[in-house]
Amino acid sequence: MREAIALIETISIALGIRIADEMAKCAPVEILDATAICPGKYMVLVAGDVSAVEASLARGIEIGGDVVVDTLFIPHVHSDVFPALLGATDVAELSALGVVETFTAAASIAAADAAAKAAHIRLIEIRLAKGLGGKGFFCVTGDIYQVEAAIEAALLLLKKSGNLVRSVVIPRPHKDLQSKVF
């Protein structure tokens, strides 16, 4: 069951791979992603029930020690986060479009979860670190006032951590934008 999510980012690719293995062995979690990211870091993303994910994260932090540079734990993650992470959200038509760019992968997931919980929007995509210089971004769609509320919730979280790069809200995206962006 996917009710929680955790992420560990390391400055060692070799130890990052070992962390992924140890996290999966210590508790029944699903590895959603385990990959090298820019610039020379490694990211492990797991999901499962709350206690398993929490135990897995603790083990990963223990193994990683001083190579762990960022972590994330969301015990009751919004259900839209999973398809958005996996690129499996089907969007027939864009309404208003909100995009938030962050300095870290963990910050993108946390902000996307906050946005999805704050307003009635569709979380379209969460893209993490690969080919982005270690940054991340997410996109949402919905009615303009809902998109604005969702983005505001994400910005509130990101401003506290200093992980906001930039955000935009496009009230009426051009019809050709959907096929180019997603």
Give the helices and strands, then pairings.
Elements: E1 4-10, H1 13-26, E2 30-37, E3 41-48, H2 50-64, E4 68-74, H3 81-86, E5 96-102, H4 105-118, E6 122-128, E7 136-142, H5 144-161, E8 164-170, H6 177-181
Helix pairs in contact: 1-2, 4-5
Report on the architecture of this protein.
This protein is of the alpha+beta class and 182 residues long. The chain contains six helices and eight strands. The chain has helices spanning 13-26, 50-64, 81-86, 105-118, 144-161, 177-181; strands spanning 4-10, 30-37, 41-48, 68-74, 96-102, 122-128, 136-142, 164-170. The protein has a four-stranded antiparallel beta sheet with strand order 2-3-1-4, sandwiched between helices. Strands 6-7-5-8 form a four-stranded antiparallel beta sheet. The longest helix is centred in the C-terminal third of the chain and has 18 residues, at 144-161. The protein starts with a strand and ends with a helix.
